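Friendly challenge for the regulars: who can give me the structure tokens for this chain first? No prize, just bragging rights.
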Amino acid sequence: MSTFNVPTKNEVSENNQAIFNQLEKGLGFVPNLYATFAHSETALANFLAIGNGKTSFSAKEKEVINLAVSQVNECVYCLSAHTAIGKMNGFTANQILELRAGTASFDSKLDALAKFSRNIALNRGATDPTILENLLEQGYTKGNVADAVILVGEITITNYFHRTTEVPVDFPVVAVADILETV
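First reply, four minutes later:
Bragging rights claimed.
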């Protein structure tokens, strides 16, 4: 099987080098998965354009989606990254485990979002009408539904890319199975 290396800044195009510089300024480093997108002249910029787009969701709500979907897709890289980011956004370790399971007993609105995100990922978009109705009853709008689907797509891209490339995880590693053992 072919393996994917994580390219260094010197191994990527000038355009990607400029993006690496921006990522280093903003994040302090270039995550391995982002660097691996730079094997392509266009993939990293295209992916970041989606990721940096405006959304109706807060950073905390985005992490709800990222954690629920990454668990469905069993992506250790994204679960590890978004566990760290979730903690930075104020979620506790137990709350993160719940979100990974697609629930949030600690907040009814986030619970509806977690269930909706998990349902979309599990059913490839064929959303259960009851789950959709609950999301809307919790105060989310049809515009939020559109934004949620975009965010599910965004995290699915990284989930699939890591599952394909299996580049090293450069965040504190969490096990995909942790959720099954604790929640």
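The chain has a mean pLDDT of 95. The longest helix spans residues 142-165. Your move, everyone else.
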